[in-house]
Design a protein that fits this description.
383 residues, alpha/beta, TIM Barrel, eight-stranded parallel β-barrel, 12 strands, two-stranded antiparallel ribbon
Length: 383
Amino acid sequence: MNLNACHNIADLRAGAARALPAPIFHYMDGGADDELSLARATGAFADWEILPDTLVDVSSIDASTRLLGQKIEWPLMLSPTGMSRLFHRSAEPAAARAAAQSGVWYSLSTMATTSLEDIAAATHGPLMFQIYIFKDRGLTRDLVERCKAAGYEALCLTVDTPLAGNRERDKRLGMVMPPRFGADSFLSFIAHPRWSVSAALGPKFDLANVVGHVDSIAGRTTSVIGYVNSQFDRTVTWRDAERLAADWDGPLVIKGVLTPEDALRAAGAGATAIMLSGHGGRQLDTTPAPMDQLESVVAAVGDQLEVILDGGVRRGSDIFKALALGATACSIGRPYLYGLAAGGQEGVTRALTILRDEFERTMALAGVANLAAIRRTHVRRRG
């Protein structure tokens, strides 16, 4: 598609919907249960108004900052997302290279279709690996050691997935384990021959970072839900997080925190940062929007932790609002996946370019020349 005709993230989402068979698109796009948390995460930003300063010299905009000890060109991170090869044959390496070109962090999921070593070899940008604490603690330890050897700068522990959420779109469209595609889903695959031929003739859909430990999931394209339910450990506690922090001995982000109380527990467990996240609305439905929890969490942790807002960002102005409420940076999942599906690496680059342009334009129009000048007084809850 003509990526230059995509002027916002919604345009890229429409492009992704055209490029992908319906079951694949809705696997990316959907949430849990009634998808209330999914909608709230995005809608929460509309509740905040920007109060600009005027007659400020904004001839030079500096959006650079530091996150997890690394300098980045603007306050964004690409969230860990599983099985990117479902959305485009260029998969995780395309997203990692686009992130490096944009000067931001890339986070690789445990459930990636590319190994962590291959990603480290494919990009020069800062890398974080997202990890779970498995029933097989040996797998967790092995992943930590591999990250150290490959030169990853940070580790991210996801804590909101003791089991998979109830993703009803996937059930309706047959994206379960094993797949149960109905006639409409099969017709959608036929109607998207470019995706279907690439999927049939390309490499296997392996969960590259765990397949050597769990032979039963090798080569299966829709094994995530079954894997989560059979291998994720529901006995994990904060003590396990403490042990992981000690084993890693580097920047550690705890992802899936939504309350001030858990944020303080994360600090006590040895985390460097938290990712304020509802897992894209894909786990527990009716949780509050991360944006609505941001101010209370920042007030609780003070300068103990960096706070990364993950969830609902669709505009550069959303990033501005989050920073005004105390976030260190924001993180995106679906926006860059829409770009990946619509146009591979160029599509991810287009998504990042759109958001960065919007963010820096918002800074200028709000009378802010650098991130240190963004203050709480620049935003007000509507009504």
